Amino acid sequence: MTRATIKDVSRVAGVSIKTVSRVLNKERYVSDDMRQKVEEAVARLNYHPSQAARTLAGKRSFQIGLIHDNPSPYYIFNMQAGVGQRCREADFRMIVQPCDINSPGLVDDIGALIDQAQLDGIIMTPPVTDVGTALAELFRRKIPVVRVQPGTDLTATSAVYIDNVQAADDMTAYLISLGHRRIGFVTGHGNYFASGQRLTGYRQALQRAGIGFDAALVFPGQFDFQSGTAAAEALLALDQPPTAIFASSDDMAAGVLAAAHRMGISVPGQLSVAGFDDTDLAQVVWPALTTIHQPIRDLGYAAADLLLEFGETIERRQLPHKLVVRGSTAAPSN
Fold first, then answer.
1. Which segment of the chain is annotated as a signal peptide (predicted)?
2. Which of 211, 212, 228 has its CA nearest to residue 220?
């Protein structure tokens, strides 16, 4: 059977080839009636556009890059899922590139990726979002870029984000409402601006409740399981240990849970534990984590949606977070 072509779609739909192309490329300003005719013709003919032909016909490769340096596989999985979904809708290909922001070859590696794949745009996730040399290289190349959760140069590029300060404030306030007054806090990696923002939210909620800030209750983490375990061991060894520990990521909160179980400390009977992100991990640990739902998949989708507009205006989209209460938190036993 002969493979259908764009000319066949044009003939069956009764519209121009240019209109078919605009519909297939998800361009705006196509009437609903025209779009429906083209989509019905595509379905009837089982038409699939040739990626090579699309590339040759225009100035695009129909490929975008997702660059990350994140220790959480759960975060990366959901980010890829969101970006990938939007790319499939637009018939674009997503190329995922892990990197090391501390590598002296970072800028060269990003440049090589762009040159080899002829990328039409880049999505940067934290902490890559705030690497000045990488941003400068993208600006020099005039390649479209969208950043997820940037902390610097906020008006330099389009971006998607949540309010980390308010999210951490919400969780801390919830723990205070349960009756907790000694609340341990595990910060994230220093390379992430979100780490400082979440600490600010924690301190903000304490101050509003009239609870003095105690630096001994704050322990540095790395956004991974191991640092969560180390933080819990240190905090629970204090002469006056906390009755609740709020970790800045679910991975670290899982480490806190593991340490508490190993030390024979009942959760939430003797210790409440809270996380941040609401990744799949939050529901497979025991007890399931009370956490902040960060819509990671939606952030990825929104970032790709902004990028694929290929507009010249800078747009910022804030997505909502949500407090999710599960079995790892309760009122303090004393």
1. none
2. 228
Q: Which residue has the tokens 């979440």?
A: 198
CA angle 223, 228, 230 (to 5 degrees): 125
Task: Show the CA angle centred on residue 53, arms to residues 47 and 59, nearest 5°.
Answer: 125
Per DSSP, the three-state class of 51 is helix
Mapping DSSP to helix (H, G, I), strand (E, B) and coil, where does residue 7 land? Answer: helix
Tell me the pLDDT tens digit for each residue of 137-157: 998 989 999 999 998 888 889
Question: Distance between CA 254 and CA 234 in Å, rounded?
Answer: 15
Distances (CA, A) of 112 to 74, 115, 121, 265, 302: 27, 5, 14, 51, 26
Claim: this prediction has a pTM higher than 0.85: no
Nearest CA to 293 out of 331, 232, 249 is that of 249
Q: Where are the alpha helices (DSSP H) in the chain?
A: 6-13, 17-24, 32-45, 51-57, 73-89, 106-117, 132-141, 164-177, 193-208, 225-236, 250-262, 281-284, 296-307
CA distance linking residue 26 with residue 16, whole number of Å = 16
Is residue 8 classed as helix, strand or coil in its secondary structure? Answer: helix
- CA-to-CA distance for 185 and 260, rounded, in angstroms? 15
In a domain, 334, yes or no: no
Query: What is the tally of structural domains in the chain?
Result: 3
CA angle, 129 as apex, 124 and 133 as ends, to 5°?
110
Same-domain check for residues 209 and 133: no
pLDDT digits (tens, 9 = 90+) for 1-32: 577 777 888 888 888 888 887 787 667 677 88
Question: Which residues form the domain of 27?
Answer: 6-49
Q: Is residue 138 part of a domain?
A: yes
Q: Tokens in use for 3?
A: 């493979």
Token pair 């941040």 is found at 276
Q: How far apart are CA 171 and CA 184, in angstroms?
A: 12
Which of 177, 168, 162 has the alpha carbon at shortest distance from 321? 162
Please tell me what DSSP assigns to residue 20.
H
Please state at what angle helix 250-262 crosses helix 225-236, rounded to 10 degrees. Answer: 50
User: Quick check: helix, strand or coil at residue 258?
Assistant: helix
For residues 250 and 126, give the distance between their C-alpha atoms in angstroms, rounded to a whole number: 16
Q: Are residues 316 and 285 in the same domain?
A: no
- Amino acid present at 152: T
